[in-house]
Specification:
heterotrimer; A mainly alpha (162); B mainly alpha (676); C mainly alpha (100); B: 676 residues; two-stranded antiparallel sheet; 3% strand; globular; C: 100 residues; mainly alpha; Helix Hairpins
Chain lengths: 162, 676, 100
């Protein structure tokens, strides 16, 4: 069952990602981004990472992409003023290099060899919550500070007059 | 440690150093602000020269300086005296005391200790340096009392005493070199004491540079010495001579090379031909400095060094010959220049060069004892001559030209007799110190196995010339008609007691200083030779005994006769027929001009060496420094700048390019991991 | 359960697509979105290996990555707004004052 679902959602994720990168208008990209994020969330579920899947949907699709859409609508660049994309030598090389990176990662993947563990309860809400509030408490708390800083920074940057 | 006063030998150089520190603090914190403040609102045209007038109330720090400066040297003299007495109480063969202060340089097999050595030779030297030095310090208090930079003067003078004591007390060539350079530095500082005066600062530079040539030879000699002996300690070097000459390491050639290189240093420091040119110019310094440094002590450092290395010189007959020849030629050469000079201090300067030639002549014929003996007596009477001439100059408000003196005898009741005694001493009149030492040198230069009749003849002739020009000086200065300028004549006065007392003391020593070395043939006993025997051995002295006493007496009488002839000639030319000198000068104008202009040696050096060096330096500056060195430096800078100019274009400011660079880096790193 | 190799390959592909977006596009908004895709690719790898090893650390790391991504998006978009107000453009090739 899993391989079939993996192929389906994997294809959706890759396809969505390609669409994100290739769309001319950012709004289209943002909508395809939601598609990709949902597909990735489904892959998380396939790997029993239920908590992360939920977070992916809530935070990413629900918050981050909405933020993107807000901004797109806020600045509302007219279509004729959107940057005109041209193929330059450097860009072409960049795409080639990115392809090479994918190839390299594929080769690296073939070398992956780690013993499978018996535990199955690695991604449940209970297990992740327990880890976050015990072993990784300090890191968790610091993330909250990071988010606070980001909030304040975003306000400071985006506000016209403070 | 042996106990007793010898343990405090280190105090001898340390006390003047203390004076340097104390006076230096005063000069820096009390005197300098004062001088700077004065320079702020006063014009620079305040004429400098020996002994200016002025009645301004002395600043309180001057009394302190006048106390510290001579005080520390006096204390050093007291300590030296006690140390030497303690040394004298030992058996002759035990008269060697080495005090290691601290290990200084240790590198591989080389060990250089900061160590002091007291033996009969250094004992004589420290007594002369501290004793004569103390008197000159006292004299300076009076002589320099009108100088503004009073504390600075005493800082230099104390520093010089420290350096000179380091030179003579050091127990190895390295410590000696420290002192050697130290006295050179102080000499430079003191010659250029009136540095606002162009000629004074030029003379300082000349002294320093000419000395540098000699020092170069000296340090090379020390290197070769270390390379040969594996040590620079006197005791070790001299102890290894028999073993090393036995196994063929120390050949005559090497000994010759070492000694000749060392002698180059001695020639520079002791102002011998061809490096004597700096000493007459050094008279630009204050007169007490001329007395202390350029007559009594520093210039004798070369003689001391040759004497110290006597064991090495004895191995190298060629070097001995060179030393003797240079000494003899210098003695007669500079004596002839002394005849024509009109500046009172310059006459004395050439006289010093000449007398130093005598000392080298003595060393060169193996009569090291006689050389050191003459060094000591010369220190007394030459210091006295300089101080007395300083007193004359002081009395005449800075006048140094003998043609503008005369008939000073009645004005200077203390200066005149003391100077006359010194003149008698240097002329070699029997009974005075100069006679005994000079006569011993002349006798040794004839009788010693290294000696030669020609050396004796030159020495005797130089003695006659010396007597002539010294009495010319006395007659021109103290006798005859007054040729003084009227304004000056009104102010002629005898010097204060701080100047006259040292004169009188030195006069006493100029008389009795020679009595420690009365030759046996005159029924005396040569205590000085006995004292020096542990250092030099009796060698030469015993060989001399083969000659009949009558011959020695005859030669002695001959040299006295020559001296008397010189005096008589001076009396005839400058007292009886006072017009005669001009007539003679007119009769042989070419010769007279040549001698008056010091054989044009300075001019020849200027053409042959100085200009070539200067032009070469200019060429090097343009071709090597400006083009090559600067070219490299500027070239590197240009390359870096060009590279930066090229590389900065990578900073496009476009984020995409930076992202591409990052990506490329990531691809390469992963690729490296894959292919590893 | 599948071996994680396929997931890792997918992770690499997503990351690579994100890289293409960052390198090849001029629109700052799309570049920011491409960065999100890259981060998601990384997260896929974390989760896949984490569940393969039965280790909760993978999930925790992915969680941290998400937090950072959210913060980065917020600040990045704020900067974008500020720049747009100033320059009237979201073309990153026109934002090249930071050079020699």
């Amino acid at each position: 069952m899993e391989p079939i679902l993996f192929v389906i959602f994997g294809a959706i994720a890759v396809g969505g990602a390609i669409m994100v990168v290739t769309r001319r208008h950012p709004m289209a990209s943002a909508l395809y981004l939601i598609l990709t994020l949902f597909a990735v969330a489904a892959l998380f579920v396939l790997r029993q990472a239920h908590f992360l899947a939920a977070i992916q949907v809530i935070v990413y699709a629900g918050a981050v992409v909405v933020l993107f859409i807000f901004v797109i609508m806020l600045i509302n660049v007219p279509v004729h003023k959107l940057p005109v994309e041209r193929v330059t030598g450097l860009r072409f090389l960049g795409v080639l290099a990115a392809g090479l990176l994918i190839l390299e990662s594929a080769v690296l993947t073939r070398r992956f060899a780690m013993p499978r563990a018996s535990a199955v309860d690695a991604g449940s809400v209970q297990a992740v919550g327990k880890a976050l509030f015990t072993d990784y408490l300090l890191a968790f708390e610091i993330t909250s500070v990071l988010l606070l800083a980001a909030v304040i920074g975003a306000i400071a940057l985006a506000k016209k007059k403070i | 440690m042996v106990g007793g006063i010898l343990d405090y030998l280190w105090l001898v150089p340390a006390l003047p150093l203390l004076g340097v520190v104390l006076n230096g603090a005063i000069a820096l914190f009390s005197e300098r602000p004062l001088l700077l403040a004065e320079a702020g609102h006063e014009e620079a045209g305040h004429g400098h020269g020996d002994a200016r007038g002025g009645d301004e109330a002395p600043a309180p720090y001057r009394k302190l300086v006048a106390l510290i400066g001579p005080g520390v040297v006096g204390a050093a003299f007291a300590v030296s005296l006690l140390c030497v007495l303690q040394l004298a109480a030992r058996a002759p063969q035990d008269r060697l005391f080495v005090q290691v202060l601290f290990p200084w340089i240790q590198a591989g097999g080389f060990t250089g200790s900061a160590a002091l050595q007291l033996d009969p030779l250094s004992a004589v030297m420290i007594l002369v340096v501290t004793g004569v030095g103390f008197l000159i310090h006292v004299y300076s208090v009076g002589y320099m009392s009108h100088e503004k930079a009073f504390a600075r003067y005493f800082v230099y003078l104390n520093l010089f005493t420290f350096a000179m004591l380091t030179l003579v007390l050091g127990s190895n060539y390295l410590v000696m070199f420290v002192g050697w350079e130290g006295v050179g530095l102080c000499s430079y500082l003191l010659i250029g004491y009136w540095y606002e005066k162009q000629s004074a600062s030029d003379a300082g530079k000349k002294a320093f540079i000419v000395n540098r040539i000699g020092d170069f030879g000296f340090i090379l000699g020390v290197f070769l010495l270390f390379w040969t002996f594996g040590s620079v300690d006197y005791t070790e070097v001299f102890a290894r001579i028999p073993a090393l000459s036995g196994n063929g390491t120390l050949t005559t050639e090497i000994a010759t090379a070492i000694t000749l290189l060392l002698f180059v240093g001695a020639v520079g420091k002791s102002a011998q031909i061809p490096l004597y040119v700096w000493l007459p110019d050094a008279m630009e310094g204050p007169t007490p400095v001329s007395a202390l440094i350029h007559a009594a002590t520093m210039v004798t450092a070369g003689v001391y060094m040759v004497a110290r290395s006597s064991a090495l010189y004895m191995l190298a007959p060629v070097s001995m010959g060179a030393v003797a020849a240079v000494g003899a030629v210098t003695a007669i050469f500079s004596a002839t220049i002394g005849i024509t000079q009109n500046d009172i201090k310059r006459v004395l300067a050439y006289s010093t060069v000449s007398q130093l030639g005598y000392m080298f002549l003595a060393c060169g014929v193996g009569a090291f004892t006689a050389g050191i003996f003459h060094l000591m007596t010369h220190a007394f009477f030459k210091a006295l001559l300089f101080l007395a001439s300083g007193s004359v100059i002081h009395a005449l408000s800075g006048q140094q030209d003998m043609r503008k003196m005369g008939s000073l005898k009645k004005h200077l009741p203390i200066t005149f007799p003391t100077m006359f005694i010194a003149t008698l001493a240097i002329a070699g009149i029997p009974g005075l110190s100069g006679f005994f030492s000079k006569d011993e040198i002349l006798w040794k230069s004839f009788s010693s196995e290294h000696g030669h009749l020609a050396l004796w003849a030159i020495g005797t002739l130089a003695a006659g010339v010396t007597a002539f020009y010294m009495f010319r000086l006395v007659f021109m200065t103290f006798y005859g008609e007054s040729r003084m300028e009227p304004a000056v004549e009104k102010h002629v006065h005898e010097s204060p007691w701080s100047m006259t007392v040292p004169l009188m003391l030195l006069a006493v020593f100029s008389v009795i200083g020679g009595w420690v070395g009365v030759p046996e043939v005159l029924g005396g006993h040569n205590y000085f030779e006995e004292w020096m025997a542990p250092v030099f051995g009796h060698g030469a002295a015993h060989e001399a005994a083969h000659h009949p006493a009558a011959l020695e007496l005859a030669l002695m009488a001959g040299s006295v006769l020559v001296a008397l002839c010189g005096i008589a000639l001076a009396y005839y030319l400058y007292r009886v027929r006072t017009k005669k000198p001009e007539e003679i000068a007119e009769k042989v104008p070419g010769l007279y001009d040549v001698v008056l202009n010091k054989y044009y040696v300075d001019e020849i050096y200027d053409i042959v060496i100085v200009r070539k060096v200067v032009n070469g330096s200019i060429w090097l500056w343009n071709a090597f420094d400006a083009a090559f060195i600067d070219g490299i430096v500027n070239g590197i800078a240009a390359v870096v700048r060009g590279a930066g100019d090229g590389v900065r274009r990578l900073q496009t400011g476009v984020v995409g390019n930076y992202a591409f660079s990052l990506l490329l880096g990531a691809v390469l790193v992963v690729g490296y991991i894959l292919l590893r | 359960m599948m071996e994680p190799a396929a997931y890792l390959l997918l992770s690499g592909i997503l990351f690579g697509i994100g890289v293409v977006g960052v390198v090849a596009r001029k629109n700052a908004l799309i570049i920011l979105m491409s960065v999100e895709i890259m981060l998601n690719g990384v997260n896929v790898a974390f989760i896949a290996v984490g569940s393969h090893l039965g280790d909760v650390t993978g999930s925790v790391f992915a969680f941290m990555v998400m937090t950072v991504a959210a913060a980065e998006a917020a600040v990045g978009l704020a900067i974008l707004i500020a720049i747009y107000r100033l320059k009237e453009t979201i073309d990153i090739t026109e934002l090249n004052v930071l050079k020699w």
